[in-house]
Amino acid sequence: MKITIIGGSQGTGAHLATLAHQAGHEVTTVSRSGVTPAGTRVVVGNACDASIVTEAIAGADAVVVTVGGAKGVRNHRAAVTQAVVAAMAKTATRRIVVQSSLGAGDSAKQLPAFLRPVMKVLLAKPLADHNAQETTVTSSGLDWTFVRPTGLTNKPATGSWKALEVTSKERLGGSIPRADLAACLLEILEDDSTIGKAMGVSA
Questions:
Q1: Could you give the count of Cα atoms lying within 13 Å of 181 in the half-sphere of its Cβ?
Q2: In terms of DSSP H, where are the helices of 93-146?
Q3: Which domains are assigned to the chain?
């Protein structure tokens, strides 16, 4: 599979790029710095620039968006996602997986009860950004999946995680290693049964 990762130079995206490459996929990342994991192709530029993103997505089978916020930029995730959706329309690429956050949409109920008020107050701006990001994708007509992790850590991968739809009565934990989230993203990317679903994920 040809995969383009928007936000693949660091964090979860870099872990995903490495795992996908090791699994035999052809990986392209978009990076302002030009940094990319070994064995992957990089398109250098601003991920808010639709022309840069179009170059990176051309010929891809799927796109994964793992960008975070940017200092001094309001709703950076949503702006990047708008550029991605525009580029996908030009290139006729349909499959998109977006790393959002637990608490976005109607997923707050999946959090442990003690974390809900904390998330609502401390993460109000990032969650508003994620909500705008998700709205852009759901209105695009693309084959989407949202992956909403709990708190992210840099701990070593455990090789296991819990991925639940919002309709599940189970609750998720408080965190997940980025390396495990990347493995979950790759698994979901390869599973067409997750299209149109939002998955909460934790360790």
A1: 30
A2: 116-122, 124-138
A3: 2-202 (3.40.50.720)
